[in-house]
Here is the input.
Amino acid sequence: MSHDHAQPAERPAPAGSAAGGAETPFLELLARGASAEAYERPVLLARAEGLPPGRIAALQQARALALRVRAELEGRRRREAELSALFETAHDLAGLRDLDAVLRAIVQRARSLLGTDVAYLSLNDPARGDTYMRVTEGSVAARFQQLRLGMGEGLGGLVAQTARPYVTDDYFRDERFRHTRSIDTGVRDEGLVAILGVPLMLGRHVIGVLFAADRRARVFGREQIALLGSFAALAAAAIDTANLLAETRSALAGLERANEIIKDRSAVIERASDVHDRLAELVLRGGGVHDVAAAVSQVLDGTVEFAEAAAVPAQALESSRTEGHAVRHRDDWIAAVAAGGELLGALVLRGHPGLDPVDQRTLERAAMVTSLLLLARRSAAEAEQRVRGELLDDLLDARDRDPRLLRERAARLHADLDATHAVLAARLEGSAADADEEADARRRLWAAASHLAATRHGLAAARDGGTVLLLPLAPGDTATGLARRIARHLGTAVHEPVTVGASAPVEGLTVRPDTVASAYAEARRCLDALRLLGRPGEGSAAEDFGFLGLLLAGERDIAGFVERTIGQVVAYDGRRGTELLRTLDAYFACGMSPARTKDELHVHVNTVAQRLERVGRLLGDDWQSPARALEIQLALRLHRLSAGAPSPARR
Here is the structure.
């Protein structure tokens, strides 16, 4: 095929002539792919053999024709290699996974096909307005590999600025571009002399430069410039494809995030809708606050409880009430349940420190529904409270009522008038700015007391500027303990000090018409005593005031006073047959002098000391203080009177 291609250019002698045989050795050389120098040998041999000049001329003509054919074949093989390399690069680009790997392959193939010492690729940096090295092949100088070229600086900067290929046979003698110390130093470290640079184009924009360079002077031909330009086009396409893939991945990631947000919001909306439906159903079928808490617990996947105001951290509860939002307290969330200025309690989400804003609003909405339910229940309870108040008013006014009817009325209110009760008088201790504020405070006290009475199966009524309660006493409970608890509870509910006085335990409320009225009078006296003694905001009963309690108690509980004061000494004498009471009588009659006491009792002074030490163990170390001594002396006399015995000191 090569022979047919070369034949028309310069036809040899006709067949059978001397020139025809001259082509044979050169055809053999072409077939072997011999080097260009080998084509000189047939001519040299002919001259050495002394062949005729015509034969030598024919051989020279055949040699020239063979060399032309060889050059054509070499060009085709080179173009085939170039096309193969471009094909491989395009294949890499089609399956682009790693941009750096594709760019390295382009630079390596460009260096191999152009036969240069070094090939490298730089990319523009729009943020800094320069171009930087991205990939190098054959480079040995670290400074060169880290070069950054400003627009118009060095050959690469000129290519990036003008978007045209540039080639230099001798870099340092070329004045067409601007030399800088940093660039020249890098090029000198690498030892480059001849450099070819072609632009990487995306549309009309230059995004970088592809270089081929030698460490010796060299002239780059047009075909080599075109080949490097083809690689540059593929590199630009690879970068563009990678950018598109990156943008696509980013867009997909954004869509995935948006989809996750949509799913999350949809779930939140669905959950909020579920809460709304559940709460609406609860309200319609008359559910209670604990039903609301249970429903919200399921939706929020946690434990939600309704708690009384006193059982919730005060600071967090007040913060929630003031802000109108649920607040975090350690690992819990607290949403105040309030109506107007009154705290009714709180919804508490336990052990759930991380709470979505929508879930937080769900908890707040549930607290609002809870307050509405409580207000609705309060409206219904107010009628019951009025009935309770009317029953207590009837008991206080000592009206002549049928005991059976009283018991029936109490039973409808879940109260048992045959049980042991205490009557308590409660009064606010805060100072009101005006009459309206004072009236509002009294209403709040009455409401809190009525709620307390309803939950404890008792009765409550407003009276004498305060509130009176009739509450049952639990087994083992005392009137003083009950009064103190009620004072704390009411004070917390109304946010003001509340003083509470209690009567002694009373029974048979329906048998004697004046039982409740007398107990209330005693509770009022205890209440007044607490205020006179400077103990506002406390709770107490007559038994808590020592001998003063005898004056406060309606029934004058002498036996109870004696028991509380010297009961342990009386019991000790009864068990052991000792004379501690007689010794105490003599000791006080003798002015608390042990020496005179031993004479009065006709015993040794050590015996007196031992007996008094035993008394101290039974009554406490402070039994000889003035207040205790007065109570003990009064108890001794009352005990003596009740027993009908003469004073030991007078025997």
Q: What stands out?
A: The radius of gyration is 57 Å.
